[in-house]
Structures are given as structure tokens and as C-alpha cells.
TrEMBL record:
Protein's organism: Texcoconibacillus texcoconensis
Record's function text: Catalyzes the transfer of the alpha-amino group from S-adenosyl-L-methionine (SAM) to 7-keto-8-aminopelargonic acid (KAPA) to form 7,8-diaminopelargonic acid (DAPA). It is the only aminotransferase known to utilize SAM as an amino donor.
Residues the record lists as binding substrate: Y148, K282, G317, R412
Encoding gene, per UniProt annotation: bioA
Protein known as: Adenosylmethionine-8-amino-7-oxononanoate aminotransferase
EC number: 2.6.1.62
Protein residues bound to pyridoxal 5'-phosphate: G115, A116, D253, H318, S319
Amino acid sequence: MTDANKVMELSKEYLWLPFTQMKDYEKDPLIIEEGEGIKLKDIYGKEYYDGYSSLWVNVHGHRKQEIDDAVKEQLDRIAHSTLLGATNVPATLLAERLIQISPPNLQRVFYSDSGAEAIEIALKMAFQYWYNNGNEKKTKFVTFSDGYHGDTVGAISVGAVDLFHKIYNPLMFNSFKVPFPDTYRHPSDDPQEVMRESLSALKETLDKHHEEIAGLIMESKIQGAGGMKIMTDGFFKEVENLCRTYGILLIVDEVATGFGRTGKMFAVEHEEIRPDIMTVAKGITGGYLPIAATITSEEVHQAFYDDYTKLKTLFHGHSYTGNQLGCAAALANLDLFEKENIVASVEQKASVVQEALKPVAEQAGVGDVRQLGLMCGIELSKDKITKEPFPFEERMAYHTTLTMRKNGMLTRPLGDTVIFMPPLAAEESDLKAMVGIIEKSIEETITD
Ligand SMILES: *Cc1c(COP(=O)(O)O)cnc(C)c1O
């Protein structure tokens, strides 16, 4: 048995947690010790719904028998060997499975260990694709405002969430930023007009600069960390068309949206997009282990394929890339997608959540409720009509999530938006109970 109070003291003394002000942590510490299904248990035995799928990664719940078994079986063979110049069995089998479920033009899998790394690799690939083809001018990227692609310096250079990224500006390379068609925070009520405005800004940028642009990077159908902002239907396709017209690579970031989260295996399927490069991570192992992949068309790969002395190799790799335990978990995860028909079930569950969220949208302090599949954001606003936000200092979304914790559910805020991302395996009754906690906690937090 672990001594709970002892671990608590150690956590305050030695840890520095990601995206966390440690002064907040000290006041409201939390240490998870166990998980079962869609619930987590802390060191004092209190249970919580995993309302954020352990930061958007969990699919089938915790301690899923099939994935547990797959990892244990792999452990009896080997835990890890390198992917530099060699491969292993599960990484190879997983590559085939990923290609089978990816858009039909994608053909090659380059592994890494996190979403941000998959993005770094995509950026280097896109740049070097042009370089290897004799074009040294294409060195820049286009991205959308409020885009999020991870926290490493390359990934933040194509990111545009001011709260997270602005301070690091002096470290970044420059990217062209185009306004995302944000229908809530826009003076126009007409989504078509908002979309046209964004597309014309994109067209103008490409018109002027396409000769120096290697690729455009975007999240798939919905922006996640930027606040759960959904693209109006048709926008994604128009962006793809513009990339083709201007001869730049389309990099689609499926790190948050991949593996059933939006009701499709990949969110590109909503508009039959064919990315040149696609990044996946989060849900790939069902939330078990850190595996990511950058998946490309054969045309992109061919630009790197030549005699070694031509120096067209992609000079990139990480120590734990292609880890066997992670790939074994991922294979078991994909088996479960088939066996339990996960993607189809998301649509039904999403409609249950949509219905349950209706009273939340009417609550005082709630400005907008956005949802695609089982990806939901509840944006708090002081004034429903004027959309005036709560003062920054009040940290209303943060305090709402603390109330939710007290009421038995864990999640995180993104600025003024409370995130709800339940594991895909959550039952309908659990989904309703979780939304009930959201409703109750908003009411308790926003009293006056
Ligand atoms: C989480 C996320 C990333 C970064 O993935 P990590 O594994 O946290 O590095 C990149 N892109 C999107 C869209 C994400 O949601």
C-alpha cells in the first residue's frame, strides 16, 4: 500500500506538471491511483468520471481486458528494440492496419511518440519534399488562427492559440496565419459569410506567397485546443481545393479527431479529404501508451527514396519510436474498433449527448455549446446576448472544472471553454450522468 499523504507531499515537493501553475496544484492537488472502465480513482479512494478521456486519449475505458492482455503478451517477447534501420513485428503489422483505415491515397507510416513529434516530422517532410524535388524556395507554412498542433517549438510555430503561444513568439519561425471561420466570435450571424471571409483571406495569402509556401497545416473538421470550433460544412473541401490549385501540400492533423472521436474513423471522412500528410496520435493505442504516426502519400515518400549519397534521407528519429508494447496496444485497440463497432456507436451516443446538453445551453453563464461526435466544448459567457466574456481574473471555466471534480468528474478548461470528451465506450446512462454533473457544476459555480 502506498502512503497517500506521503505521495501527496512528494508531489508538491518534486513535480512540475504540464500546462499547470504549480501554485494552483498545491491548493487543489490530485493523484490518480487506479482506473476501471470510464472511472478514475484517486489515492484517497474518491471516484471520478474520466470526462476528458485522460486528456483525449482513452477510447475503451481503463483496464480493457483485450488491450491489457496484448501488452502483457508482448512483454513476454520484448518491450523495445529500435526502428532505426530495422523494424519489429507489431510496428510492421500496425503500419498495414493504419494504411487500411486511412484515406486511400495514403501509403507510408513514419512513427514517433507524441502528437507534437508527428507534427514536427510532417513539417520537416513537407519542407524536404520540395527541397528534394529541387525547389529550395518553399520553406513556409500556412495555418489558421486558434490552430493547435502541440507544444514543441516547430509545432507552436504553426500554432495560433494566443494564450499558449504568444509569449514564445521570439523563439518561433514565421508562418502565414489565416483567420479560422469562428462562427461564435464573429460579428456576422451567417456561417456562409464567415466561411467566405476566411477562404478569401486564404486565397489572398496563397496568391501572394504560394511560391514560398511548402504546405498548409490544419486540424481536421474541428479545432480542439483552440476551443472546440467546428468548420462549417464545405470549408474543409474548399481549403483542400485551394491547396491543389496553388500547388502546396495539405497536412491534416488528426491527433485529436482520429480513431472515431467525431463519429468517423478519421474526421477527413466528413468531407472526403485526401491529405498529402496526416498526423495521428492520442487515440491510437486506446489511451494506453505513447505512439504517434505521420502518414503520407507514396508521392511524398518517393521524393525521399534514392541512393544514400544523394542525401535525400529524412534525418529524423526518436529513441522509442515504434515501441513494441505501444504498437501491440494499438493493434488490440484497432481489433476492438471492429469487434465492438465503435465508430458507428459514436453517432448514436453523440445524439444522446446533444439532447442532454440542451438544458446546459440555456443555463446562465453559458454562451455557446459546440459538439462534433463525442468532442464537446461549453463556452462560458457573462452575457448570452452580447457574448461578453467573464473577466479573465475570475477563471470561470477553471473554477467550474474544480466544482466538477468535487461532484465526481474530471476535465480541463481551455480558456473560457469547458471540455467534455468522454471515452467512446461510455454507456448512454453514463453520458447522461456526466452531463448532469456539468449542468449542476456550472450552476453551483456561476451563482451571481
Ligand atoms: C494533443 C494535440 C497535439 C499534440 O499531441 P501530443 O501527443 O500532446 O504532443 C497535436 N495536435 C492536436 C490537434 C492535438 O489535439
